[in-house]
Specification:
The protein has a single domain, classed as Cytochrome c-like domain (Cytochrome Bc1 Complex, Chain D, domain 2, Orthogonal Bundle), CATH 1.10.760. It is built from 6 helices and no strands. It is mainly alpha-helical. The radius of gyration is 17 Å and the shape is globular.
Length: 132
Amino acid sequence: MTLKYVPLIAALAFIGQTAGASAAGDAAAGETLFKQKCGVCHKIGEGAKNMVGPELNGIVGRKSASVPGFNYSQALKDSGITWEDEKLHAWLTEPKALVPGTKMIFPGLPKAEDRDNVLAYVESFDADGKKK
């Protein structure tokens, strides 16, 4: 291998390590946190229904404010967010900072590890609530 490819290989390795950070989370730990911190308002899995918050099946890649039958705040409707890892991490850190005017009342998860774990759990469900 010639030295001219070393920077490219290093950059690709870095991208591989940082992309999909939540996939590195512990889904089992995330399930426990989800039940404690999120499950009062949100449901996930087969048969999940909207509660105080919308059901979260297949949230990754979904447009914000797009679950049928849920009454979202105008701020979230107007946000234009697509729920990818970066936005989900920001949302779980402090929803009102990401979308001022949201009606979601949640203090956030201050630890990145907790956010990674919750997202690993949430990402383990497809849009119909089945485990991937």
